[in-house]
Amino acid sequence: MCNESVFYVNGQKLPWKEGLVISDALKMMNYTFKMLVIKLNGELVKRENWQTTSIPQNADLKVIHLISGG
Amino acid sequence: MISREEYFSKRDPYAFPIWQKATVGIAGLGGLGSNIAVSLARAGIGKLILADYDIVTLENLNRQQYNISQIGKLKVDAIAEYIHSFNPFIELILHSVLITPENFDSIFDEADLLLEAFDEAEQKEMLISCWTSSFPNKHIIAASGIAGYGKNETIHTEHYGFLHIVGDLESELTEGISPIATRVALIANVQANLALELLASSKGY
CATH second-level architecture of A6-65? Predict the structure, then answer.
């Protein structure tokens, strides 16, 4: 399976397909938190670009929950 | 009168001069921010930019660095009063305003590093987003997941380039229950401690 198409969300392996965008990945992970910081291969992606930023194969997506309290 | 030399005795010969020259921003002066400000002022940061629009209330006293006589005062003024009571040599820049994407740059322009110490998740996201676009090569240290007590082992720091997030990244506040002094101060001091380390060292994560 060396050609397996995958990408990673917070270290978890997910199946990759052409045209996948960040908001799709959030749905796949069932993330329900409203406030998130997202980094795609180390680059911060702004909220307004989540619907349009496509995820490359083998990408490393980091989704950080921001929780109220301080 | 205490001299500067007397006051700043027994300091780290390498790191302390760097901290004295540093300007550090703190956004929010609640449970996180008031504790961060006090620790960084004691450690010897030369200049702090402190921003919070709020006033001190009775319910702040369970975890924030204020006292009963300061209820009703602006938090920026109350924390400045306390900091100056133990460190007369620090420079404090006070902004009693709500931080927005519009005024953000003018408030924190001078800061070498920013500590996110807001309460609400929406505000945290706004601050991280503004800082990373305006100052992509300067560190920001945020907090997420501070509720409750105990659970020391769950507190950790995630490093994403110049963005660092401290907390357990999962615990949410229960409606009507404040963060608790020990845990919020612990996380505040993890943030402050990392700030000192990043300033003293050029190494990235």
Answer: Roll (3.10)
